[in-house]
Each structure stands twice: as structure tokens, then as C-alpha cells.
UniProtKB/TrEMBL annotation:
Protein known as: Class D sortase
A GO term, aspect molecular function: hydrolase activity
InterPro entries: Sortase, Sortase_D, Sortase_D_1, Sortase_dom-sf
Pfam families with a match to the protein in the record: Sortase (PF04203)
Keywords: Hydrolase, Membrane, Transmembrane, Transmembrane helix
TM region(s), chain numbering: 7-27
Annotated active site: H112, C170
Species of provenance: Terrilactibacillus tamarindi
Length: 192
């Protein structure tokens, strides 16, 4: 009798965990869609393709301000200022303090491996990434990938006067819990 009750309890706990995880994923996708719709609406109202911000470009913390398109994955993702859990629940997080397109320095975008950056491991050298902001659209070509410790902080640094786009997510991709490593993608502006 005790073993039957124990098995029943384990099944209930397991089902509860699966329901919670499913709810979290749906909740994140909902917020991501809402943020993306707001950003796309805002970008469609912006004037022209100036490619240089008309004023200092300083999005507010938690604010959606642009999109990241990954053509190979057929993804258009919202970019939100900040990389804390609340920001990352809305989309790709721009690491505060790093640069923006045309500012000739390092731009760092972070995302969850199981939501926005779910298939970035499929990307290869030469694949393109496109950032769209209210002051223009900017294409980057992937140069390399690397895997580093989660403790590694030297990937975020100034690259002035050279512009570099860096995407970062947890690794391994299918790890349960806090992943011990980070998967980094480095891209440079397209020279077309």
C-alpha cells in the first residue's frame, strides 16, 4: 500500500512540474509576441532609414526597442533593454552598457536557450543576423562561435572603433537547470 501511495504522489508531483514548465513557456511566448507586436508597430511608424540616430539612442530599462531577425531560423525576435529575468521573458535582452548599431563598439544581446535562442546552435559562419531599430536596419555576418564558462566575463569589452555583434545564451542547449557554460556567437557588420 505504501509503495502505491508513493508512486501516486510521485506521478502527481511530476505532472505538476510539467504543467508549471508548460505554463512558463506559454507565458514567455505570450509576452514575447506582445512585445514584438508593439515594437513592429512602432518601427513601422518611424520615419525613413536614416542609419544614424537623430538623438542619443537610450532605451529605457525593460523597454522593447527593436527586432533581431535570424533569416536561417526564420525568426523575428523582439529586443528589450536589459538582460535580467523580467527583460528576457519579453525577448532578446540588450546588455545595458554595451553599444548599438553605428556606434562602432560591441553590441551584446542575450537570450534564453529554450525560448528565443532555441536553435542558435544550428547557425554557421557566414549566416546573417539583422537588427532593425527606428533609425535603420543593420545586417551582420557571423564570424565565429565559442563556448565559455558561465563565469567568463571577458567576452563583454570595448571593440572600438570596430563594431561587433555578440549573441550569448546558456550552454549546453538541452541542459536541465542552470547551465555551466555560455554559447557565444560573434558577428561583424555586412560590408555590402
Amino acid at each position: 500500500m505504501f509503495m502505491k501511495n508513493k508512486a501516486l504522489i510521485l506521478c502527481i508531483v511530476g505532472a505538476g512540474i510539467m504543467l508549471y514548465a508548460g505554463f512558463q513557456m506559454l507565458w514567455t511566448r505570450y509576452h514575447e509576441r506582445v512585445t514584438l507586436n508593439d515594437i513592429q508597430s512602432s518601427l513601422s511608424q518611424s520615419k525613413g532609414n536614416k542609419n544614424v540616430p537623430q538623438k542619443p539612442f537610450e532605451p529605457k530599462k525593460g523597454e522593447g526597442f527593436g527586432t533581431l531577425t535570424i533569416p536561417k531560423l526564420k525568426k523575428i525576435l523582439p529586443i528589450v533593454e536589459g538582460a535580467n529575468p523580467d527583460d528576457l521573458a519579453k525577448g532578446v535582452g540588450h546588455v545595458t552598457g554595451t553599444s548599438f548599431p553605428t556606434m562602432h563598439d560591441q553590441i551584446v544581446l542575450s537570450g534564453h536557450r529554450d525560448t528565443v535562442f532555441r536553435h542558435v546552435g544550428e547557425l554557421k559562419k557566414g549566416d546573417s543576423l539583422i537588427i532593425k531599430l527606428d533609425y535603420g536596419e543593420f545586417k551582420y555576418n557571423i564570424q565565429k562561435m565559442s563556448i565559455v564558462s558561465s563565469e567568463e566575463t571577458s567576452i563583454i569589452h570595448s571593440t572600438k572603433p570596430h563594431e561587433e555583434l555578440v549573441l550569448t545564451t546558456c550552454y549546453p542547449f538541452y541542459y536541465i537547470g542552470n547551465a555551466p557554460k555560455r554559447y557565444i556567437i560573434y558577428a561583424t557588420p555586412d560590408q555590402e
